[in-house]
Structure formats: structure tokens, C-alpha cells
Specification:
The structure holds two protein chains of two kinds. Chain A is α+β, with helices and mostly antiparallel strands. Chain A contains 19 helices and 27 strands. Chain A has three domains: 199 residues, Aldehyde oxidase/xanthine dehydrogenase, molybdopterin binding domain (Aldehyde Oxidoreductase, domain 4), CATH 3.30.365; 149 residues, Aldehyde oxidase/xanthine dehydrogenase, molybdopterin binding domain (Aldehyde Oxidoreductase, domain 4), CATH 3.30.365.10; 328 residues, 2-Layer Sandwich (Aldehyde Oxidoreductase, domain 4), CATH 3.30.365.10. Chain A starts with a helix and ends in a 15-residue tail after the last helix. Chain B has two domains: 75 residues, Ubiquitin-like (UB roll), CATH 3.10.20.30; 71 residues, DNA polymerase, domain 1 (Orthogonal Bundle), CATH 1.10.150.120. The interface between A and B is large, with 63 and 60 residues.
Chain lengths: 721, 156
């Protein structure tokens, strides 16, 4: 998802207030609708105290935190329970998590629907989960005080129990009494100075089950009588099926049914392998449609042409063109980035049990509200008859938040044909060819310096597809603007003090489905802007770090991470022989990131040896998770910078699997250090801000060691200038 | 019938001998800890042991394991007592967790063959296992930590 700035007109704090008011604070007697068949969804019972939608305490002392965001590796099944447990004074060893069912109570307090994205789970859930824990604690204290015939103020709590002098009642012992009380209207949150969990590198709650094979991902779901399906999909976007021949496939072992569905042909069998074998012998005749001549090389040529004319104005400070004409020195550069696949380790999948008047869905999704609405429509059922059981996600990176719910809706159509519970599994090749990529982008940038080497003018002209146009989010996200804010995020708020600054956007109309990809617009704007700043520094014959410092005088948090990373990377000392150092700084999703990369280049091959990362995400919850996300983000960004590109020829995707769309591997992984800035600023995101700086830091390091500018990703020295 | 042992238990299955071992393990035996990632031995998510050798089960036909002993993640240790699992816990390695079964199974063979692996040994043994979340630095630390545990305790 895009940053919160672009997402809504409402201020975040207002939204938090609104959400707490709207949720009524506490929900006694709240019952789960549509309880699932799997162990992870358990119903509240007589032996539990469930003061609100987010926590349930059992007589066995177990504290179960119901988490309304999806766990896709970013740690929300730990950090959100930490917030609640902190205020509850729970015994952390008794705390567990459970995915929330789909219900408006679990809507994202800012985005107004149940979803995970925009690096927003922790900052948006901070008040919500703390309030929920504090309310439960107040009720447990009240129950104990009643029993002891004393005042609540005479009681204290610690590690899952209420104390009064030498008397002690555990939370489990208070379950029955607390459940009869009325929730408090107001609760007092803790003074951060007294935090016992928040701010500590607490180990993740979901680790044990991820080490013994017990964690259930969507692909692992098994329902009684379940069949497995694969789908033959169009080889070209927009192609329409004319006919298909399934005569051979139908006679193959295990095949139950083969049926035309809106996205192609569903092959339904007893097992995956049988379905896949049968699919391989189905012949489909396609009307290939208008995209059959599409090629990315032609498209980029068109982008280059488009960039020659002015685009829609996004930002216009001073007179960029005039200042450029008068500049003492100037430079222009065109940066290009390709389409990219999210490439989650777990390919898309979705299990459905569709009945006459109910529909249950098991999948790893980031988009519960949207998926439910789309699934209900496809199933011909009202929303409330559709329930989604969110499993662990084997990576998300934005792909599992699809505005059309493509992988869920398709599974509903397959379930209609199957007449039995069914799980649709996408092969890796299906997943990669399935679309909804990070869009390709072109940035044409011109910049100028005055006679003293100060940057006086900058004009960025972007060409690329909008990820919002044509989706149900267009109205909300674009707000009548004639450009997509998520296309230009990260350049429209360029932090450098350049008096004449213009940003223009060309929205390209291409028939390739595109979507948010970890760090969204920042994934390309940081590359273009941070490489161009380096080029300007080179033109000014200044050190790239010092050149940035000069332009960031009024940006203390940018400066903070930049100085920290420069210090930790020992920027002032010469790099080891044969090594080049590059630096980049970028703000995204409420957080400030800076990275230094150290690379060598041998026979045109770039090797990243070390990355130093500084992150300022304001007040944080779990520094262990912050470091993991920052490291993982840097590796994600480095993978794209070094290896990844999707290309089309004759409308067909030319990459199919990890062999043609590589991911960084252990032997290619640099040493990574992460440093977290300590402050009391508002919390920012952490899932995405580690990504954007990696590509420009590496590209700038390649320049430092080769003298060649990288203007296209993935980095290929043969294309450097 | 195809007979082999899985995690010490004998199984006899009526299954097409060309079916990849991965899908037999997941669908016929219900051991879903072993993951599908690529289907062409590129990512390592499906790594299991066949008679002690790390194998990509997505490209191994089940006929290959007739009479052999297969170990999956579920057989590494059910109680997380294996030094690798303990080290993975200590280093808080997993993010999404999907690749970690394969990572652990590759690391188990490495550690058995090289009880004190160098970084180069780790590169060599672990490069076939992709992690999209980028947990490599922690995996590396965890393998070294596990080696230390084995050395100290003299087990496994």
C-alpha cells in the first residue's frame, strides 16, 4: 500500500481516536462468526474472559491476542501482542496469538478495512492494542478488588496476577468474576518509562512452529474431502479462450473434473501432481487479443519518447526550467527500472469450501475485507455468509493484497465447478506469469549547479503505469488528482533544499496488471533520485555524503540517519582496495533510512560485500524485528538491483522461475549491520523502509569503484555510462 | 506399492512412481512442513534427507526412495531439541518461515559433515536454499551457534 500521506485526508491521530470511539472500546459478549475447522480459530467459552475483540484470557492463564493483521514475516504476531501484553501486565510466557476473523471490528483504524500493508500495522495498532490490554487489566483489578473488598487503587498487577499486599490472584483465577463486570469507559495507559516489553528485543512468538513444520500456510490447508486444482491461464494478458480440448486429460488418473472458468480452464483432481499432469496435456485455443505484439523494449522506447514532453505537474517550486537555463553546470540522466515479480516463497493458493449458503476460505491474504466482498460477489452470497481464515503467509510483499482478489475469486469459481472443498495451487510459473507486478518506470532528470557548485535546479519527469487507476482505490487514493501519488511518492517530497524543483508525471496506459510491491513508488523513486544526487555531487566535485549534508540542513531526521550510517561505515576513511562505497538516504512510510554499500566489480560482476543500515522509525516496539526487517529489506532491494527483471516479447513473459528471475542467495549476501536511531518521535513503518536505499547505495558504490554511472536496473556494467 | 521409511516409520503407498517425493510427503503422508517453492530444484524449500543426503524432493520421483529412509523437518526433532532448532530460536531466524524447513534440513547435513563449518562451507551448503525475506545473516549466525552447541554438548 502507499504511504499514509497519500492514503486519506484524515490525520492519523484523528483516525486513532475515531477507531477507538467506533469500536466502543470494549466488546463484552462478542462472538466469533463462522468459526473455522482448524485449531487456530477457537471460540470463546465459559472458561474465558474476553473483554474486547483483541484479547481472551483463559482459566488456564493463557492470554490469546487476536491479531487483525496478517503475519507475512514482518513480525506482527509478536509486536502487536507485545503492545497488549505490556498494558495488561501479562506473563509473556503465557501469551499467544490468533488471526482475527473478518469483521469490521478488525478494520485497519486508518485505512478503514481489514488489511495489512503500507508498513502500518504497528503504528496504527499501537493505541488499539494498548487500550485493549489496559481495559482488560482494569477489569481484572476490579474483579480482584471486589473479591478482597478493597479499592482497585490498592491493587497492583505483575506478570499475569493482581496483588494486594501479600494477597495474590492470577488472571486465570479472575476470569469468571472479570467477565461479569462492565468494561471501563476510560483507561490510563502506562508511562513509557515503566515499559517492560515494549522496546525490548523479545523473541518472536511464531518461531517455534516455523522450525518443526507445524506452522500452517495456505498451501498446507487440508479439508475433509478436499480436491486440488490447477488452472490453465491465458498466456497473454487480455487473451480470451476460444476453445479447449481436454479429451486426453479427462482420462488421466485422479482427474475429477475439467471446467471452463472466467480465468481459463480449471483442472480438478485428487492431488496436485495429478492435476498438473492433466493440465500439461490440455490444449487451449486463445484469441490472443491486443497484447500479442506487446514488448517491454518497445514500451520503454515509448516511455523515452513520452519523457521528452512535459507531464502533469506534481510539484513546482520556483522556476526549474529558467534556473536550469542559467545554471553554470548541468547534467541530465534517464533512469529505468523494469517490471518486477513479488516472488513470495509460497506461491499463490486458496482453499474454498463453498456450500449452498455459506462460503469458507482459507488463504494467506493481506486483504480480508476486499477479498470477502469480491468472494461474496463471485459466490452470489451476502458478505456475512463468507468467512476468511487467514493462515500464515509465505511472504506477501504486496502481492497478496490484490484489489480484484484475483487468486481468491478464481478459487470461488473453481469451487463452483468442483462441487467439493477445493484448493487451488499456483505453480511457481503460474505465480510469476500471473501479473500484478511492480510497474516499469522511467525517470528523466535534469539538474543544474550555480558557479559555486550549489544545486539550484532539478526537474524529474516520470513515466510509468499507475497502480491505482482502474481499481476501487482510484477515487480514494487519487482524490481527483490527474496523477497517481503512489507513482511519485519519494520524489514529490524530495527533501533536498533546491530552490527550483519540478516534478512531472506521465501516466502510461499499458495492459499489464500492476500493483504495490514492497515499498511501492519508493522502490524506483529512491533509485532515481539518490543516484542523481550522486551525479550532481560528482558534477560539483564534492563528496556525495557532504553534498547531501549541505542540502539537508533543514531535515534533521534525514541528517540523523545519514550521519549515523556514514559514521558506522567509516565514510571518512578510504575504502579498502578494490572496494567502492555508495550512500543513499530516503524517507518512506513514516521512517527515515540511510544505507552505505561496499561493492567490488570483477569482470563486470558486482559483488556486495557489506551494507550498513541506519533506520529512524521513531518510537519502536521490538528492535530485534526492526533489525530483521531492515536487513531483509536491504536484501530484497539488493536482489532487485542486481538480478531482477521481467520482460515481455510478443506479449509473453520471458521469465518463468528462480533460474530466470534470480533472488540473492547465501553466497551473494553481504554482511549487514543495522543501527536504530533512538528518539521519541511518532512511530513509522518498518516492513518497507529498508528496501528503497539498497539499489542507489549499490549503484553509487559501483560508480565509486568503476567510474561508471548505473542508470538502469538490474545493474549491468555493459549498460553503464 | 512403494515402500520406504519416513522419519523412522515404514510406509507403503499405492502411488504413481513418477510422482515427486515432495507431493507424496505433503499430500499422501500429510507432512506439510516440507514446502513447494519452484518444482525444479532451484529454491531448496523442499529439502529432505534420503539416507542422510540432502535432496530436493520436488524433482525426486518417489520411486527413488524405495527401500530408503526419508527424513523430513518433522523428523529433525519434534520437541525443538535439535541444536539447529535451538540456535534458530536463539537467533530468532525466521520471518515468513516458509523456506526454513528446507534451510534447516540443508544445515543439518552440513553440520553432520562439518561440525565446525567455515563461512565458505556455509556458502557452499546453503546457497541452494533461497530465502525471500532475507534471513541469510541470521541463518549464518545460527549455524555457527549450533556448531558451538554441538561442540559443547558433544551431541549429534
Amino acid at each position: 500500500m502507499s504511504g499514509r500521506k497519500a492514503s486519506t485526508g484524515m490525520e492519523r491521530r484523528d483516525f486513532l481516536k475515531f477507531s477507538i470511539a467506533a469500536s466502543g472500546g470494549l466488546m463484552i459478549g462478542f462472538q466469533f462468526p463462522g468459526i473455522g475447522k482448524l485449531a487456530f480459530a477457537q471460540q470463546a467459552s465459559a472458561n474465558t474472559f474476553m473483554p474486547n475483540a483483541f484479547v481472551r484470557i483463559g482459566t488456564d492463564e493463557r492470554v490469546t491476542v487476536i491479531v487483525n493483521h496478517s503475519e507475512m514475516g514482518q513480525g506482527v504476531y509478536t509486536s502487536l501482542p507485545m503492545l497488549l501484553a505490556e498494558e495488561l501486565d501479562a506473563d509473556w510466557t503465557k501469551v499467544g496469538f490468533e488471526p482475527a476473523p473478518v469483521d469490521p471490528k478488525y478494520n485497519h483504524p486508518v485505512f478503514g478495512m481489514q488489511m495489512t500493508g503500507g508498513s502500518s500495522s504497528v503504528w496504527s495498532g499501537m493505541e488499539q492494542f494498548r487500550q485493549a490490554g489496559a481495559a482488560a487489566r482494569a477489569m481484572l483489578i476490579a474483579a480482584a478488588a471486589q473479591q478482597w473488598k478493597t479499592n482497585a487503587t490498592a491493587c497492583r498487577t505483575e506478570s499475569g496476577a493482581v496483588f494486594n499486599g501479600s494477597r495474590k490472584l492470577t488472571y486465570g483465577q479472575l476470569v469468571g468474576a472479570a467477565a461479569r463486570l462492565t468494561p471501563p469507559a476510560n483507561v490510563q495507559l502506562k508511562d513509557p518509562k515503566t515499559f517492560k516489553l515494549i522496546g525490548k528485543p523479545i523473541k518472536r512468538l511464531d518461531t517455534p512452529e516455523k522450525l518443526n513444520g507445524k506452522a500452517v500456510f495456505g498451501i498446507d490447508v487440508k479439508l475433509p474431502g478436499m480436491l486440488t486444482a490447477v488452472v490453465v491461464r491465458a498466456p497473454i494478458f487480455g487473451a480470451k479462450m476460444k476453445s479447449f480440448d481436454d479429451s486426453r486429460a479427462l482420462s488421466m488418473a485422479g482427474v475429477r473434473k475439467i471446467a471452463a472458468i472466467p480465468s481459463g480452464v480449471a483442472v480438478i483432481a485428487d492431488s496436485f501432481w495429478q492435476a498438473k499432469m492433466a493440465r500439461d496435456v490440455i490444449r487451449v485455443d486463445w484469441d490472443e487479443g491486443s497484447m500479442q505484439t506487446f514488448s517491454t523494449s518497445q514500451m520503454m522506447q515509448q516511455f523515452r519518447e513520452q519523457a521528452k514532453s512535459p507531464g502533469t505537474s506534481v510539484r513546482n517550486d520556483g522556476d526549474a526550467a529558467g534556473a536550469l537555463a542559467k545554471a553554470a553546470k548541468k547534467i541530465e540522466a534517464v533512469y529505468e527500472v523494469p517490471y518486477l515479480s513479488h516472488l513470495m516463497m509460497e506461491p499463490l493458493n486458496c482453499a474454498v469450501d463453498l456450500r449452498q449458503d455459506t462460503c469458507e476460505i482459507w488463504t494467506g491474504t493481506q486483504f480480508q475485507t476486499v477479498d470477502r466482498a469480491n468472494a461474496a460477489k463471485a459466490a452470489g452470497l451476502p458478505n456475512e455468509k463468507v468467512q476468511i481464515h487467514t493462515t500464515f503467509l509465505g511472504g506477501g510483499f504486496g502481492r497478496r493484497a490484490n484489489p480484484q482478489s484475483d487468486f481468491v475469486v478464481e478459487a470461488i469459481h473453481v469451487a463452483k465447478a468442483a462441487g467439493a472443498p477445493v484448493k487451488v495451487i499456483w505453480t511457481r510459473e503460474d505465480d510469476m506469469a500471473g501479473g500484478w507486478y511492480r510497474p516499469a518506470f522511467l525517470h528523466a532528470i535534469e539538474g543544474g549547479l550555480d558557479a559555486s557548485g550549489n544545486a539550484v535546479s532539478w526537474r524529474s519527469r516520470l513515466v510509468g503505469q499507475s497502480i491505482m487507476a482502474g481499481t476501487l482505490f482510484a477515487a480514494m487514493m487519487m482524490k481527483g488528482k490527474d496523477y497517481d501519488p503512489s507513482s511519485v511518492e519519494g520524489v514529490d517530497d524530495l527533501p533536498y533544499a533546491i530552490p527550483n524543483l519540478a516534478v512531472e508525471s506521465h501516466q502510461a496506459d499499458v495492459g499489464i496488471p500492476v500493483q504495490w510491491w514492497r515499498s511501492v513508488g519508493h522502490s524506483h523513486t529512491a533509485f532515481a533520485t539518490e543516484c542523481f544526487v550522486d551525479e550532481l555531487a560528482g558534477l560539483a566535485e564534492k563528496d556525495p555524503y557532504q553534498f547531501r549534508r549541505q542540502l539537508l540542513g533543514k531535515q534533521p531526521r534525514h541528517l540523523g540517519v545519514l550521519d549515523l550510517v556514514a559514521k558506522k561505515a567509516e565514510w571518512d576513511k578510504p575504502a579498502p582496495k578494490g572496494i567502492g562505497r555508495g550512500i543513499a538516504v530516503h524517507f518512506s512510510f513514516g521512517s527515515y533510512s540511510a544505507q552505505v554499500a561496499e561493492v567490488s566489480v570483477t569482470d563486470g560482476n558486482v559483488r556486495v560485500h557489506r551494507m550498513v543500515c541506519a533506520i529512524d522509525c521513531g518510537q519502536y516496539v521490538n528492535p530485534g524485528i526492526i533489525a530483521a526487517q531492515t536487513e531483509g529489506g536491504a536484501i530484497f532491494g539488493a536482489s532487485a538491483a542486481l538480478f531482477q527483471e521481467l520482460t515481455f516479447a510478443s506479449g509473453r513473459l520471458q521469465q518463468t522461475n528462480f533460474n530466470t528471475f534470480p533472488v540473492m542467495r547465501m553466497n551473494e549476501c553481504p554482511e549487514i549491520e543495522t543501527y536504530i536511531v533512538e528518539n521519541n518521535e511518532k512511530s513509522g513503518g518498518i516492513g518497507e523502509p529498508g528496501v528503497p536505499c539498497a539499489a542507489p547505495a549499490i549503484a553509487n558504490a559501483v560508480f565509486a569503484v568503476t567510474g561508471k554511472r548505473i542508470r538502469r536496473l538490474p545493474i549491468r556494467l555493459t549498460e553503464a555510462v | 506399492m512403494i515402500g520406504f521409511s519416513v522419519n523412522g516409520k515404514r510406509v507403503d503407498l499405492d502411488v504413481d512412481p513418477f510422482t515427486p517425493l515432495l507431493w507424496v510427503i505433503r499430500e499422501h503422508l500429510g507432512l506439510t512442513g516440507t514446502k513447494y517453492g519452484c518444482g525444479m530444484a532451484q529454491c531448496g524449500a523442499c529439502t529432505v534427507h534420503i539416507d542422510g543426503t540432502a535432496v530436493r524432493s520436488c524433482v525426486a520421483p518417489v520411486s527413488r526412495v524405495i527401500g530408503k529412509a526419508v527424513t523430513t523437518i518433522e523428523g529433525l526433532s519434534s520437541d525443538l531439541s535439535n541444536p539447529l532448532q535451538r540456535a534458530w530460536l536463539e537467533e530468532d531466524v525466521p520471518q515468513c518461515g516458509y523456506c526454513q524447513s528446507g534451510q534447516l534440513m540443508s544445515a543439518a547435513v552440513l553440520l553432520r559433515d562439518k561440525p565446525t563449518p567455515t563461512d565458505e562451507d556455509i556458502d557452499q551448503a546453503m546457497t541452494g536454499n533461497i530465502c525471500r525475506c532475507g534471513t541469510y545473516p541470521r541463518i549464518r549466525r545460527a549455524i555457527h551457534r549450533a556448531a558451538g552447541l554441538v561442540a559443547k554438548e558433544g551431541t549429534r
